[in-house]
Amino acid sequence: MNNQHFLIVPASGIGERMNTKLPKQYLKLDNGLTVLDQTLKTLLNIEQIKGCVVAIAENDTEFTNSAFANHDKLLATAAGGKARFHSVLSALNTLRPFAKDEDWVLVHDAARPCVKASDVIHLIEQLKNHPVGGLLAVKMVDTIKKSSNTVVEKTIDRSLLWQAQTPQMYRFGVLFKALKNVVKNNLTITDEASSIEYLGLESVLVPSSKSNLKITTAEDLDLANFYLKI
Predict the structure, then answer these.
(1) Which residue pairs from 74-77 have beta carbons closer than 8 angstroms and sit at least 24 positions apart in sequence?
(2) Which value, to the nearest 10 degrees, does the dihedral of the CA atoms of residues 195, 199, 202, 208 take?
(3) 5-229 is classed in which CATH architecture?
(4) Mean pLDDT of the chain
(5) β-strands 144-148, 151-156: how paired?
(6) Where are the domains of the chain?
(7) Longest dimension (CA), the chain
């Protein structure tokens, strides 16, 4: 059975740490595209992705200016929520008429414009027969310290640690159930994989590129511009 692949991009954050008037997803990169448009350009060009929902803030006035606001693969926009998982759940509800429970949903941060199409295609290929899903991630190479008030408490075994990235790709029905469970039990999560963990289900880690950084500071924007030029 051929399952379809859909994309959700939560893009309703305000990017407080950037200290800019515009939310970070609408900042311009050196190539003339906004952070969000660069992200969408890469992902919507992937053949396996058949449709997309972008979650935006209710007072968003910028997305209508996007080069992708009328893209063939854009199924709809969804109302962004208070937290990331609220936005993703809203987008899943918007996606429900289009997706079956067994179909795949890839959730990708709007502020990761350097994601490589080859990494996403590899993720899709690696997970195609998995009953749940998984995520792009990078193995930690630095020595990791646990601190107590800036004093080293102990060194953590880095061989067990991965840095989670996006896309995070799960079966539609599984992810919908996992996020509804988060809301019902008032849980705190920072990514989709965390919601899967709360259901006691397995997520597969798929190695990715370090260049798939998330823009949170002005320094990250400079680094993104560097990666997009090489």
Answers:
(1) 74/44, 75/6, 75/51, 77/53
(2) 0
(3) Alpha-Beta Complex (3.90)
(4) 95
(5) antiparallel
(6) 5-229
(7) 54
